[in-house]
Every structure is written in C-alpha cells, then in structure tokens.
Amino acid sequence: MTETADVVIIGSGIVGSSVAYHLAQQGCTNVLVLEREAHQGKGSTGKSMGGVRAQFTTPVNIQMSKYSIDFFSQFDEIVGHPADYRAHGYLFCATNEKHLAYLKANRERQNAYGVTNVEWVVADDIVRMVPQLRVDDILGGTFCPTDGFVDPHSVMMGFMLNAREKGVRLWLDTDVTGIEVENDRVKTVDTSRGPVATKVVVNAAGAWAAQVAQMAGAELPVEPLRRQLVPTEPFDQLPKRFPMVIDMSTGFHFRREGKGILLAWNDHDETPGFKTDFDPTFIEKILTHAASRVPVLAEAEVNPRRAWAGLYEMTPDHHCIIGPAPNVAGLYFVNGFSGHGVMHSPASGRITADLILQGHSELVDAKVLGVERFKEGKLLEETAVL
Ligand SMILES: Cc1cc2nc3c(=O)[nH]c(=O)nc-3n(C[C@H](O)[C@H](O)[C@H](O)COP(=O)(O)OP(=O)(O)OC[C@H]3O[C@@H](n4cnc5c(N)ncnc54)[C@H](O)[C@@H]3O)c2cc1C
User: 146-205, pLDDT tens digit by residue?
Assistant: First the structure.
C-alpha cells in the first residue's frame, strides 16, 4: 500500500523542522519529513555560526527577526527543549561616513518596525565592550543587546522532537528522487523507500532546493555558496563574554566560542557550487583581517583541522523565498535564506504553516517573499548580509 501524508516536508534541517513544528502546533500532524542523511543537521544547519540578529535593512527581515528572537528567548518554555539563546548582542562598527549613514538609516527602520533597543555607540562604548579592538578609525556603530546566538542543533532537535511528540513522522536515510505532478498539482513524492502520496509538498532542502524544485518542473533561483569558519585554540586575551563584532570595513566578524574565538569573513572571491571542503589558504586571509582589527588575535593559534566549510543558500536579492510555487499547486518553497536560515527559522516555519493551512500569514505580508518577485522585478535587496 502506498504511504500517504497530508504534508510531506523534504529536508529535516532547522527550517524543515520548524515547518513541522508549526504545522503540528496548528493541528496538522499527518506530516512526514523526509531526510536523506542518517542524522539531522548534516546540511547547513550543522555548519552554522548560530548568530541571531534583528539588525537588518528590509522591513520583512526585521519583522522575521523580531518574531524569531522573541521566540528564541522563550524557546525552552514554548517548545520544551533548550535553544541555548544567549543575548550577547551584535556590534556593528563603521569606519566611513557611508557605513555610518547606512547604520543610522537601518536603525530608524528597525525602530519603526518594533526593534526599539538598537543603541547608537561611539568608539569609547565599543572599547568598553571589547577593550582589545583597534578603534582609531571607528566613527561609530550600533549595538542591539537582544541579538546574540543560539545552538542551531538544539533548536532543530527541539522543533523536531516537539513535532514528533504530536505525531509528525521523520524518515531518515530516505532520498527524495522525484516529485510526480498531475494536472499541475503535486501527487506523489518518490523516495528511496517507495512513493508517498500527498497533496502538499514543502521544499526545505536548503542548498539543494533548486534540484528538488526541478523534480516538480519548477524553477527556483537558489545557489549554493561556500562559507568557511575558523575557530581559534583557547584564547584568553579577549573577554569571556562579548558581542558578535562586525568590522564593516572588511566584513570580518567574530565571537566567542567556548574557550576560543570563532572567526568569520565573507570571501568575495568565492564562486557558487557544492564545495564543502575547507581551503587552508583561507586561514591566512582571515587572520590578516583579524589581526588588523584586533591586534592580539595575531597571537591566536589555529588548527586547520578544526576549521570547517558549509553552504549558504543564496538568492539573487539575499532574501528567503517563502510561499507556493506559481505553476505547481501544492508545492511550497521555504528556501534561499542567504545566511539567515537559523535566525529566521521560527518565523519561516510559522509563515509556511500559515500559508499551507490558512492561505495567508498575519506575521508578515508573505506575498513579498514569493518566488514571483524575481520575474516581476520586485526584488527586496537585503544589504546587511554577513
Ligand atoms: C558556515 C556557515 C555559517 C552560518 N552562520 C549562520 C548564522 O550565524 N546565522 C544564521 O541564521 N544562519 C547561518 N548560516 C545559514 C544557515 O545555516 C542556513 O540558512 C540554515 O541552516 C538552512 O537550514 P535548512 O534547514 O534550510 O537547510 P539544511 O540544514 O541544509 O537542511 C536541508 C536538508 O535537506 C536534505 N535534503 C536535501 N536534498 C534532499 C533530498 N533530495 N532528499 C532528502 N533530503 C534532502 C539535506 O540532507 C539537509 O539535511 C550559516 C551557514 C553556514 C554554512
């Protein structure tokens, strides 16, 4: 007998898990999540830096962050599992007038959309937070104390465990190989364990989302882009607790990770592709930026074997795509988070569940997130991308 489900979710990363949770929360529990790996979190979720922030440029990203950060702050009580949310803040540091004006405009917009706690800071404030930072060229910055970090693996597991307690099923080791469409409507999901009949399919396949969309004959502009992170060995010359610091002059940013420091930088020479190997030459590049902004980091030790690479799922406007596929009834996208899939997982799961079950979401105007925006030229253009 063919397996059936009201909703099939492809991908059990943090996004698919959040969709499962939010569907179950709204009473839709005949849900089957399909994951080709033997464990959850082997895609981008397990590679993430775990940063969460409301300091964005576009209204919809600010709204999604606001909902998500409020959610993370109560995750343990709401979901019944830990998220390890730490409100250590994000500190953006500007070294030129253009970036200063950009931060000021962003702060006004953040304030207008309910994020009222973004503080304007000057070099003295910054030195108080991170005394080791070189501030001679810093003109000012913004600090939001409720930005911070979560443990992506815990959040993903929390969402999925809660959903499973309500009846959602998770099939691991199950590769989705095709999506059958009849009369422009999804009918069956083909898997390495056999077919599953369903009327609703959610594409939560992360960096592989375009391939999954293609199985149903749908186009999805999502590209994989390698992203590399470098942890230092234990390093006690920086405070035990400090915010995520972003040097806007280079894009270098860093935070504490246990006893060491986690270093990140967006290498503009990176080209799209499914590259997940760590490139050891990246270490010298990132350490140059690190030592220039934080001179004591020149003394940090790095073990290349502990560094890692993962994939961002990029869209042309650096904004997620959430909503129904235009030409395939029953197929929903929740993809292309462009580096923000962890922090926006509560909002994206909620919006997707709302759209499937009610056809609209009260959280945001979901139409702006639809994939049609690329054909209609209504791009959102998030520029606060790290
Ligand atoms: C180095 C790095 C740092 C990052 N830092 C941050 C950060 O600080 N903050 C933040 O918010 N975001 C960050 N991100 C981005 C974030 O990790 C992603 O946006 C997020 O994890 C996406 O979640 P997902 O569930 O959509 O995708 P994934 O976690 O990749 O899950 C997709 C799942 O789909 C499965 N799948 C794919 N195809 C199939 C198929 N055919 N059949 C069955 N299963 C399939 C995969 O196996 C995978 O498990 C970072 C990413 C990287 C790489």
Answer: 999 999 999 999 999 999 999 999 999 999 999 999 999 999 999 999 999 999 999 999
Distance 1 CA to ligand 1 centre (A): 33
Q: How far is the CA of 98 from the centre of ligand 1 (A)?
A: 33
Q: Any idea what the Cα angle at residue 230 is, between residues 226 and 231, rounded to 5°?
A: 145
Rounded to two decimals, the pTM is: 0.97
β-pairing, 308-314 with 223-231?
A: antiparallel
